[in-house]
Amino acid sequence: QVQLAESGGGSVQAGGSLSLSCVASGYTNAEWCLGWFRQAPGKEREGVATIDIDGSTDYAESVKGRFAISRGDLKNTVYLQMNNLKPEDTAVYYCGAAPKTVSSWYFLRNPEHFGYWGQGTQVTVSA
Hints:
about 5% helix; seven-stranded mixed beta sheet; four-stranded antiparallel beta sheet; mainly beta; 1 helix; about 50% strand
């Protein structure tokens, strides 16, 4: 079992920035494809950004150029820097993990195939 602990988030006005952090733990020496996903009220969870163990990244079209995902020195940490936030970015953001053999491209588009999720952190962007 892997545990995911998110931190960060909060409330900001449109145009502002926020950052999220996540640490994956539970398997000694395991490595994971990691990503950020979000779910707005009344909508399904969607992929935001993912990064695989080789550092390849993938982004939802709606956040390209505004968000940046990265891994920490400890490979089971992942960050999401969110700039130029918009009201439509408002959602609960979840950190997710998939086995290391999964590509960032596949994980972004098929998150529900994998069962490892954090508890979520709220991001609210006001107009």
